[in-house]
């Protein structure tokens, strides 16, 4: 009986020990499980925070892209507005210049055209006619002086006088022809007039007549152009007035 009782006690002690070990294991497991739960909770919290940060970063990125797009649109609008203003200023300036030009044409429409050309030709004609008159006057004086010299000489031989008179007349004609072919120099200003008129200047007295004829032809041409232009004055006046009104 004692032996059995000892065995039973021993078994009880062993069972108790095993129970204690089991309890320790359970406690240890529970402790580890609690720590694991804490870690899981911590991981979940970190995960939520990371997701929140990711969402915030994404939101910030989207907002930043929108801001960038808005800035690009703003700069583009500024550039377009600047270009439009430059274009409008250029067009306004061109219109003002065009209007000024039309108003100037309208002011000058009653002014006879080719005034300067005709005035230049008149001055050249007056100059050439003056040269002709001076040349004729000089020739007349020479002939008068020659005649006085001949009349002042006393000749006894009538035949000799006739021959001498004939020779002198021939000499005067040859001298007169030679004088007409005599070259002369023109003033530089007068030469410029001829260049402007597009006519070759005379280089001798016998070329003056042909030069005067060419000047008259030029004068007739400019007068004809002037008369044709005057005929259309009212039509051009109305056209210019309408163009100015449109501007």
UniProtKB/TrEMBL annotation:
Transmembrane segments: none
Comp. bias intervals (Basic and acidic residues): 157-171
Region entry Disordered, spans: 139-180
Any one Gene Ontology BP term: intracellular mRNA localization
Residue ranges the record marks as coiled coil: 1-49
Superkingdom in the source lineage: Eukaryota
InterPro entries named in the record: Bfr1
GO cellular component, one term: ribonucleoprotein complex
One GO MF term attached to the UniProt entry: mRNA binding
Keywords on record: Coiled coil
Protein name as it appears in the record: Uncharacterized protein
Organism, as annotated: Plasmodium falciparum (isolate 7G8)
